[in-house]
Amino acid sequence: MLTRLQGWCISLSLLGVLIFPLASSAQLTTEDIDSRLNTESHVGNLTGHASSSTVKYDYRRYCVGCHGDLGDGNGEVAQWLDPPMWPKPRDFQLGIFKCRSTPTGTLPTDQDLYDTIGRGLDRSAMPIWNVLTKQERVDLVAWVKHFSPRFVGEKPGAPIPIPTEPEVTPERVKAGQDVFARVQCWKCHGVTGQANGPSASTLTDDQGRAIAPYNFSDGSRPKCGSTDQDIYRIFMTGLDGTPMPSFADNIKPDEAWDLVFFLRTLQPNNEYNKREKEIAQQLNLKPLNALKLSQ
Ligand code: HEC
Ligand code: HEC
Question: Which CATH architecture has domain 170-293?
């Protein structure tokens, strides 16, 4: 018979075997990361410094529990977050971000990271950090950047142009539905936008973790902003690290606005979509026929 102590020792060593591969996924060392303490950020007329005397403490206090000491997303809380309901905290060492104004594959601007920190990420554990002062948030942008060597060699992409928003018309709403059909948004998001398209249940992110498409009908906020401009930007830049691609090569700027107007008809009433909902009702707009689409 094993003594209780022996039992514990065996469980602990088994645990060690299981945990080791996870722990070793942190690629960068503290020395490597510290070598980038001169990282800066610029937002409006504020400059952020990874070397500021307070940012280290702000990060320890507000961020480390999820994002971890080394910024690799392995904070203490991370183990309790189970995708797809609860996405894992971002690994800052990779330098890959969902919310960007810049083309897919490129780094976000400092302003993008600043906006994300103040906005939080709905449908995730990432809180809204607008209780912190602007200077604290700008310093945290520099701190987030200093975890990834990408920010040393690469510049952020040039923000994608967003033309002035045209007037919503019935023709545009209908044309938007045609774009939605043509570029196959419905494959993931479903014909009614309820996150139930044929591919929805099979999706994984770049880390191989399950991820669900956005459900337009459940009233939740898109992670990267709720305005018409934000929606336009989301599908023209894509959410890097996720299966949500960039459509910049498949959708022309004018069509992109049509699509934004159509997407509004899929959402429950909100402050942005009064006109689109009225138009959909007048047109008696019917969901696409998924069967017909897949033929
Ligand atoms: C309770 C956990 C938690 C805390 C605390 C937290 N985050 Fe996050 N954070 C997350 C999760 C989870 C994600 C990924 C969400 C997703 O992918 O939808 C994330 C993502 C991010 C991203 C990436 C956004 C993108 O565009 O990909 C940034 C930047 C970020 N957090 C910054 C911070 C900063 C700065 C703090 C501290 C002020 C902080 N986080 C505190 C959980 C947390
Ligand atoms: C291959 C599957 C796939 C296709 C095709 C796809 N999406 Fe997505 N989309 C996703 C996933 C997955 C997410 C959720 C990402 C997340 O939560 O991090 C998403 C999120 C979104 C969001 C919300 C983003 C946010 O910030 O929360 C919008 C808006 C969106 N998609 C619009 C579109 C439009 C419009 C199209 C077609 C032009 C489209 N998607 C095509 C998978 C897809």
Answer: Orthogonal Bundle (1.10)
